[in-house]
Design brief:
Strand content: under 5%
Order of helices and strands: HHHH
Distance between the termini: 62 Å
Structural class: mainly alpha
Helix content: over 70%
Length: 133
């Protein structure tokens, strides 16, 4: 097995930080969109708005889990550095591998969230096409 040094888990920190920032920005944008749709729904009870809010609810759930997995990635990577520092090499590979798995799961959820984002946009486009036709 390749040697895992203190630098190996440390390489994840900038990546994880950027991911968490991107996830937070997506969360803020979605929460603002939900608030806007909520206000719009009070004036016009449209099925399109209900579909949009339903998808946004799913996306909020996914982003929360993406953020939690990103935090777990950072925590576990830091813990693997602790293990390296105290020469507990028998655990380092498994713990660091777990941090990579958490990161992969977070990215997989991100892919699902992007898919839902596109689905919501397609609903909006169909509504506009219906008005134009």
């Amino acid at each position: 097995m390749p040697e895992v040094t203190l630098n190996t888990p440390a390489l994840l920190f900038p990546t994880i930080s950027l991911l968490l920032l991107a996830y937070t920005n997506r969360y803020i944008a979605i929460s603002n969109r939900i608030r806007a749709l909520h206000s719009q729904y009070k004036t016009e009870q449209s099925n399109i708005i209900i579909l949009q809010i339903s998808i946004l609810k799913q996306r909020i759930f996914l982003i929360r889990n993406m953020q939690l997995l990103g935090i777990a990635t950072m925590f576990i990577a830091a813990f693997s550095m602790f293990l390296i520092y105290y020469n507990l090499e028998e655990w380092v590979h498994a713990v660091f591998g777990l941090s990579l798995i958490c990161m992969l799961m977070s990215l997989a959820l991100c892919a699902v969230e992007v898919y839902l984002s596109n689905k919501a946009l397609l609903i909006q486009i169909k509504d506009v096409e219906h008005l134009v036709s």
